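so ive been stuck on this for like two days lol. basically i have the seq below and the ligand is copper (II) ion, smiles is in there too. i just want the complex predicted, nothing fancy, no docking runs or whatever. if the output looks off dont worry ill sanity check it later, just need somthing to start from for the group meeting slides
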Amino acid sequence: MERLTTGNMGGLSIIFFIIAIAISMSFYQFVFLNELNAKPQVSEEIANPPETTNVVIAEGAALPTNPKFFDPKDARATLEINNKVVWTNKDTTAHTVTTDDDYVDKLSGKFDSMDTIGLISPGSTFEFVFTEDGEFPYHCEPHPWMTGVVTVVKNFS
Ligand SMILES: [Cu+2]
């Protein structure tokens, strides 16, 4: 009788031990995966660079004969310095900044003003933080002759 009880207790504690391991493993996995999904691996300097790169949407850009659309048409930005690009609409027409190739930044989301603020109305700005190097061609949705590219390079200083 005594031996039987001890044997049952031993079996029970093994079951509890297994359950405890299963719970801690699933908890670890839950926390770990959540962390992985929620926080993009981007440094503070890249997420909040000290300077901006500025592009003007030129006055008259809605006309295909205009000499300038996005100015500069080729904007260059450096990670950790000025990888936040700000477009200022100095035209009297609303425009968009829309990725040519469906680019999605891991921190900022889709490179498309239509996904965040919609049309960039006259006098207003659109900001986008690029968190990796590369070439990012874009255009304006209502005026497809308006094209530009942002080239982002790594900071080697
Ligand atoms: Cu436009």
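The longest strand covers residues 147-153. The chain has two domains: 1-39, 44-153.
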